[in-house]
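Hello,

Our lab assistant flagged a job as stuck in the queue for most of the afternoon. It eventually completed. Since we weren't sure the result was trustworthy after the delay, we are filing this so someone can double-check. Below is the sequence as submitted and the structure that was eventually returned. Let us know if re-running is recommended.
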Amino acid sequence: MSTSDRVVLVLGGAGTVGSGIVKALLEKGFKVAVISRDGSRLDRLRTFVSPNTKQNLITVVGNVGSEDGAEEAKQALLEQVGKVTDIVSSLGFSWWQGGPPHTQTLKDLHWVIETLLFSTFVSWKAFFPLVRDTADSSYTVITGGAGEKLLMPGTGFLTVGAASALAFCQVLREEYPEVPCKLNQVKINTGVATPERMAPGYLNHLDLGEAVAALVERGSSSHTVFTVSSPADLKTVLLEGNL
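-- returned structure --
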């Protein structure tokens, strides 16, 4: 199937990581759909992508963080595009430093878990059936490495939330070992930023986008975790497919 016949839904596509993925997919010829609760973020995304690919960007205002909202957004999307062939999930946030656990409330913890785990689960439950039974389709989840260690004092709830997302991805791989759909995870163990906000060791979100787009286009791996810890890994791990 050519890229022009494929429709990729990028969940979280209006964010820093997601926007780089959206731009790269469009430049490879894919049609790309993005859902966001904030219409102004979708407007900024339209101005961010290349003008000559903008006609292949489909945007929907909706909430994929609730079960009812995700179903409504799915129906609205399908009315526009008819089908979805691939999904990239890049939901949540990459940083939280609210303080040590004894200074936080249950409400704070619930918000972190809701943002990092619940939205990933709810959107997966709604959209995975669109690609599950097709061998040419893919579902790729972008996660962070914060779930494996405390990054610095005060970031404990980020570790808890990120760890729950990592565990959910493991559950998906092991609960659904035989699904035809290519089910993969990209685990990023470093920061991701736009070019103007880069720091040493960070990944440029445009470079990460190109690597994830290459993974989606290739479609040869399944039930695989691609771990990216440095800019060099983008080439060796994703672009060349070496684990």
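-- support follow-up --
The delay was a queue issue, not a problem with the job. The result is valid. The two ends are 26 Å apart (CA to CA). Strands lie at 7-11, 31-36, 57-61, 86-89, 138-144, 182-188, 192-193, 203-204, 224-228.
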